[in-house]
Structure formats: structure tokens, C-alpha cells
Amino acid sequence: MIEVSQLTKAYPGVAALSDVSFSVPAGSVMALLGHNGAGKSTTIQILSTLVQPTSGRAVVAGYDVVHQPAQVRERIGVTGQDACLDLLLTGRENLVLFGRLRGLRRRAASRRADELIEQFDLGDAAGRPVQTYSGGMRRRIDIAAALVAPPRVLFLDEPTTGLDPCSRRQVWALVTELAAREVTVLLTTQYLEEADVLSDSIVILNSGRVVASGTAETLKQETGHSYCEVTVGHPDDVTRLAAMLADLDGVEAVPANNTVSVRAVDGVGTLAEVVRRTDRSEVAVTDISLRRPTLDDVFLHLAREPLAR
Amino acid sequence: MTAVAALTERLVRVALRDFDLLIGIATPVATLLGLNAALRHIIDTGTMSYADYVLPAIIVQAMLLGAVTTAERAAWEQSSGFTIRLRAQPVSELAPMTARMLYCLIRGALALAAAVATAHLLGFRLTGGITNTTGFVVLPLILTLALSLGADATGTWLRRSGAGQLLLIPQLILVLASTGLAPADSFPEWIQPFVRHQPVSQITGTLRGLATGNAAVSDLVITAAWCVGLLVALGSIAVRMQRRPR
After folding, report:
1. Which of A9, A246, B130, B196 fits A17 for a cystine, CB–CB 3.0-4.6 Å?
2. How many domains does chain B have?
């Protein structure tokens, strides 16, 4: 449903994307994972025909984004990072407006708006200007507007950035529901957890390049062990502690943070072993915790080891 | 077409909420009443009442102000998320600008009607017959459309608010230093050549002629050339601004 090959976008002085290739099968959810400036938004902008690539090719819903933008636009829905609605209009007026922009007659657009208001649980707010909405409500109405004419492909650019945990869960539930209805979804996120929960496959971007791709499962196996992190009270203890744990897997001392981390191959078992060893020593430990990998850990890991795709 | 209608409706709804339409109607009414009260015994306009004399200038100024708000709106829209999203919709790239132009015509027509209605209360009458009256209505609308196209290109190019304020200065000079507010003889001698020949003087003079049915053909031709020339020149720039690659 989305085919991207060797996509490159150069802005004066910056290569926003270099040689990016991936494909998203129909009806699946793919997450583009990366930091700010990794090229996620640029990718979405190119695929939604907003920006022209410098080179490379992208096909969305069977049409080339450069040569057949009109056909692509009829088949996609897009939400941006900021609210992309008219803030002075009410939620309902925005939905009707987008319906009419998709070629629906006034009455049909009005009916569709009512359906979406109910589906997205916006009944109470539908008559208020969008500028009075909370962040979570704005995101919901924003996604609703992208669904006015059911799209084949939906692009969600950081759909949960800046949302409180409850609103984030609501957006997650929405994406899952869409995927069940065979909509192909490409979303961007900075959170590994989010990519993990929502997507069938993940592409990790760093500085405009694809550094890893695969299913959440394979990426986790390759990069994603939880690890056990020990914080000590004194910088000198970092080397001592690291020496004591040296025979364990993936030991890493970070003197700057007063921490030593150990890859938790056995999960809680590893934690127990670390606790046993530090207990016997005279090292003053201030904290021991089991942590899930963050995006930073994945990047660090990828930078260390060449990755089999 | 549905898209243009929907986008125009949006602009009208927004203008009702941010009071732009109200301002568009109230400004010519207040200016006409104010100037008439202050200047009707001071400026000598011969046999013509001052309200009759100044009405065309009030109308031209309302049309110019309409263009200024178009610049502001175009600039604001360039940076709004709504417009960015609009570009990913199956909508013609000229649809948003067309909607802005339709809105400026609606605003212009309402301002014109308000100005004429107020002047009517002060004794003004359109006595030139149907052809002249049609000209009296159409000419300001062509003017506001032409200038709005130019303003739209400016706003689209500048992409930030303040685009409108920039255009306020030339419009203010053109209106104040014109024969629209006072006959050329009442200006200092050194500025009289400019006052006599600048476009606002030209157009207000023609409108005065159309109101009474005394417009000279040569005068009409010059004014029509101004308006149509501006329409074509500024229109082609505005269309090019909308079509430029991003």
C-alpha cells in the first residue's frame, strides 16, 4: 500500500532524508520511530504530497506521490503535529467543511460529521470552537477530520505527543480500531513503547537514514533487553562495582551518572543476582532498578553493533 | 466548486466571529458621518453637498481596506496548520485564494451598500439611471478585487501578519492626498500635480460622475483602464504565487 524506495530530501545545507526505503503492506500499521529531526515528518510530508522529494520514488495507494498527487490526495487522510483545523470554527463545522472539501454534498457532509462526533465521543464539545478544546480533544477531532472520507491510507504525525496518559490511551485505542478496519496506517512517534503497542512493523530513523527495520518482536530481540541499573553514592565505586559484575552480560559503567548497568537477560533473575552481589560488597548503593529499553538505548545499541536487517 | 463554496462559507463564518465583517461595514459609515460632520462647512465643494462629494472617497477607502485585510488573512493562512492540511486534500491549488477573493467581494459589496445607505440619509441620490448606477456599483468591486489580488500575493509571499499594516501606509497617503476628500485647489501648490493625477483622484472623480450621470467618456476609459490593468497585472502575480512549487 505504501512503497518507498531510495527516497532522499535535501534542504539547503541539510540532508533531511538519505536513501530511505521501506514498504507498508495493505491493512497494516507501521511506526516511524526516531528523535526530533530524524526525518519522520519529512517522510510523512513527502508521502502526503506536501513536499517534493529530491530523488527517489514513493507510491501510495498505487499512485506516485510526485506525478499523481491528485490521485494520492483522494485516498489519504493526514493529521499533522499541530492542530490542522480552523480554530475559530466549531468541531462540527470543521468536520462538515472537510467533508465538503472531499466532495460530499452539504447534507451528506453533515450526516458524516454527526457519525464521527458520536464515534469519537465529542458530542458535548461539537458546538464549541476548536480553540477551546483540550489537547486530547483536539487530537481526536483532528483524526476524525482525516477520516471524513474513509481513507485507504492514514498518516498520523506524532499523534500522541503532548497528550496526557489518558488521552494517549484513547488515541491508541483509535488506531487499533482503524487497523482492524483494514486502513493502512503510517504513524510517527518518539516512543518505542508506542511503536511496540500499535504497529505491525517499525522503521527506525536516525539523521535521515533507516538504521533498523522489522517487526516489533525482532527489533526487541535484537536491541531491546531490559537492563538492570545500579546507582552508587560515590564515583570511585563505579569501577569497583563494574569489576564485581564483570562476568555478567553487557556490563556498562557510566561514571558520569554514578551508574553501572547490566543487560537483564533473565529479567528479574538478573536483578536478584545483582542485588545479591552488591549486598555482599561494601559499595554504597542508592538505587537498583530494572528498566525497559528507551529509544536512546536502542540507538546506542545500533551504533555499537552493525545490525542484520 | 463545492470546495470554493465551502471555503468561502468558512471565511464568512470566521469573519462574523472575529468581527471583520462588522468592521468592514462600520468603518465607511463612521468615516462618512465623521468627515461630513467635521468638514461640510469648511471645504468648499461648490453646488454639491460635502456628503455627495466625499462618498466616492469613502467607498474607495473601504475597498482599499478590504484589500488590506485580504493581505492579513492570506499571510495568516500561509502559516496556519489548516492551510497545510488543505494542500493534502483533493482541492485545486487556487481554491483557497478564490475563496478569499469571493469573501473580499462580499465584504466590499456590504461596505458599499452601507456607505450608500448612510449617504442616502444625508441626502445623496443616485440620479444617473441604470447604466451609470451599475457602473457606480461594479467599479468599486473591480477595484477591491484587483487590489485584493495584489494584497493576497503580498501576504502569501510575506507569510506573516503585519503584511496588512505595511499596505495601510500607501493606501492612507493615496486617500488623503487625493481629490476624494477635497478639490485639488485646496491642496498646497507643490503637491497639486500628484493630487490631480493619482489613481484614487481619478477613480473618485469617475464615481462622482457616475452618481449623477455626468461622467465623461474619456474619464471612464482612463478609470476602466486603471482597474482592468490592475486586475490583470495583480491577478497574474497572485495566481503565480499560489502555483509556485513548495
Report:
1. A9
2. 1
